Amino acid sequence: MKKSLSFHTNLINFKLFFYIILSVAILFFDNKFNFSKNIRETIDFIIEPLYVLADAPNNFFKNINNYFKSNSNLKVINSALESKLKYQAARLQELESLKLQNNRLRKLLDSDNINMSEKLSMAEIIRIELNPYNKEIVINKGKENKCYVGQVVVDENGLLGQISDTQDNFSVVTLISDPGHALLGTNSRTSKRLVISGSGDDNSLEGLYVPKSEDISIGDKILTSGLDSIFPEGKLIGKVIEVTNDEKEDFLIVKISPFANLSGNKEVILLWR
Questions:
Q1: Among residues 166, 164, 229, which one has the least CA distance to residue 198?
Q2: Residue 146's CB: how many other CB atoms inside 10 A?
Q3: Is the pTM of this model over 0.70?
Q4: Which is it for the CA torsion 252, 253, 256, 257, positive or negative?
Q5: What are the extents of the domains in the chain?
Q6: What is the tens place of the pLDDT at every residue in 85-138?
Q7: Cα–Cα dist 82/101, whole Å
Q8: Between β-strands 152-154 and 171-175, what pairing exists: parallel, antiparallel or unpaired?
Q9: Which is nearest to 147 in space by CA: 135, 156, 138, 155?
Q10: What angle do CA 157, 149, 105 make, to 5 degrees?
Q11: In angstroms, rounded to a whole number, what is the distance separating the alpha carbons of residues 53 and 67?
């Protein structure tokens, strides 16, 4: 029994010694002749497609995830770019609007119709009366701004009208083209006075009660007389565009084109007495 056990132990030791010698020999020859490299390359060549095949499902789902992630990122980027473009477009419109407004205000203040020694204030038109027989506009100044009924309103070209109603933060302006509006004007060429009435047409005023013997001609400029205790003297009203002597009428038919832009203003000037 002891001999059998001793023999078995010696056999194991021999095998161990043999494997050690064999391993050393393989390492020596592999290092010297590098023959295991070809074996490894052959094994890698055979196994690599298996790795690729085994990893294919993972790569497939990874690529799909990257695709949707990329699309999602593109949508976010596109949305951000669209928002930026909209903001820039709105900003450009705002700047253009401010530029136009600045030009309009400069024209108002540089106009010959404005006397800078007068007390004046700018106002913005916020609403227009659509009734063709009621020529009125609404401005954004009222009692809080010391506006009052009868106050004169002009633009850079001439007389617009006067305030007919005022509230805390807005006022109603009746234009000189309103059929119910009248004022006393003066012919700048002859100094003759005449009554100017609105016709309901923003492009035409009427000269009333002008005698047929009156010296009045097409092209004559009509100014405010300053004698009605409302409008200051010398403000431009309009230019005579038609003089008709109708035998059926007692007076001359006189049509006057207003200098002021009665239908296209955005800002106006208020004058104080």
A1: 164
A2: 13
A3: no
A4: negative
A5: 121-273
A6: 766 766 666 566 556 656 655 665 555 555 655 678 889 999 988 777 789 999
A7: 28
A8: unpaired
A9: 138
A10: 30
A11: 21
Cβ-based burial of 162 (10 A; exposed 0-12, middle 13-18, buried ≥19): buried
- 173 bridge partner residues: 137, 163
**One CATH from 3.40.190.10, 3.40.50.2300, 1.10.10.200, 2.40.10.340 for 121-273:** 2.40.10.340
Here the tokens at position 165 are 């109603």
- Residue in the structure block whose two tokens are 């499902």: 57
Q: Other CB atoms closer than 10 Å to residue 88's CB: what's the count?
A: 10
Q: Outline where DSSP puts E strands in 129-202.
A: 136-139, 152-154, 159-166, 171-175, 182-187, 193-201
> Given the structure tokens 């010698």, which residue do they identify?
21
For residue 224, give the nearest of 106, 104, 115, 110 by alpha carbon.
115
